[in-house]
Write a structure and sequence with these properties.
164 residues; alpha+beta; Arc Repressor Mutant, subunit A; Glutaredoxin; 2 domains; 5-stranded mixed sheet; binds FE2/S2 (inorganic) cluster
């Protein structure tokens, strides 16, 4: 598996924080997902070997916790907050609009691989909802019209890069 050197360093550091190696399984899954964007079957095997576990033990964690993805994400990662404050001011409609704009199912990646759209829990900006995070950038007060603009910007970048 091709992990970045800094991820490998963090992984080795994290393992030393636990008296029993197997307890590091969740932190390792987070680090691998951060590095690769998802948890591939070979990542499960790699983590299992690293922690002296059976792959099935790691696989169970990946399937139990909804934050772990087993498929690669799109070029752009759109996360819409679904927690109460954002939901009360239209978060669900914003998510629906994003889905329509890219013809993409929730929690999935669009057919062209351009975007992955997910509902997430509170993005810590509850007073300025609905909140949408696109890659590492937080967008506040994103109502439906703004969602359309953001989608248009994403498409414009894809077109400029020769993908549309
Ligand atoms: S509820 Fe949406 S950011 Fe907190």
């Amino acid at each position: 598996m091709n992990l970045k050197p800094e991820t490998l360093e963090k992984i080795d550091g994290v393992i030393t924080h636990y008296p029993v190696k197997r307890s590091a399984a969740l932190p390792l899954l987070h680090l691998v997902q951060e590095d690769q964007g998802f948890i591939a079957p070979e990542a499960i095997e790699w983590i299992a070997e690293k922690l002296e576990l059976q792959p099935v033990n790691v696989y169970e964690l990946v399937t139990f916790y909804p934050m772990f993805r087993q498929q690669p994400i799109g070029r752009r990662h759109i996360k819409v907050c679904r927690t109460l404050s954002c939901a009360l001011v239209g978060g669900f409609q914003v998510c629906e609009e994003m889905r329509k704009q890219f013809d993409c199912a929730l929690g999935a990646t669009s057919a062209d691989g351009e975007v992955t759209i997910e509902f997430v829990e509170c993005l810590a900006s509850c007073g300025t909802g609905p909140v949408v995070m696109i890659d590492d950038e937080l967008h506040e007060k994103v109502h439906v019209a703004r969602a359309r603009e953001l989608a248009a910007q994403i498409r414009a970048v894809a077109a400029a890069e020769g993908r549309a």
